[in-house]
Design brief:
Blueprint: H1 2-6, E1 11-13, E2 27-28, E3 38-44, E4 47-56, E5 59-72, E6 80-84, E7 91-92, E8 94-97, E9 101-102, H2 110-132, H3 142-169
Antiparallel strand pairs: 1-8, 2-3, 3-4, 4-5, 5-6, 6-7, 8-9
The chain binds zinc ion.
Zinc ion binds near residues 87, 103 and 106.
Length: about 180
Amino acid sequence: MAKEITSEYPVLRSSLFQKMDLPETFTPATLSRSGAVFASLEVSRHGLILSYRITGGGILSNVHDRIDFDWTCPAYGGQRVWFLCPRCGRRCGVLYLGQRVACRKCLDLAYPCEMERFTKGWALHQRWLSRIKDGKPKRMRWRTYDKLQAKVAERAVSRIQPFLASMRRRGFNGK
Ligand SMILES: [Zn+2]
């Protein structure tokens, strides 16, 4: 579930540029990837200049970013190219192309984490609910039944509502 959310963003991998014969100065290039249409892309040995338009949560954004490359020499030889995240400067192999270009850490990644926590919590909630939805099972003690009822009610109110509100604020409209 969490992965689905992240993969909504088109992804750019530094390995794409690994074997390219990159020019010393910025040169216009084309790069096609499903889900991302680059209005403009310039590439050099030193990095990328990327411009694109993206719609998300009903907002159209024009994104323009420069992404620097960082070359390392791995033990097995050759050179490996990395991106430097334009937001935090961290070295990374994958950038997400959303309303801004960002690495996983930057891209408000509380988002899938929250989703994961939510689905786990939700599964538990459903399990509790399934035990008591038709009233108290014969063999269950009243104390257990009351406790489960309270838990279900508490979760429904205190966990799910704020979570849905926070998702809506992030432009997620639910299903
Ligand atoms: Zn970052």
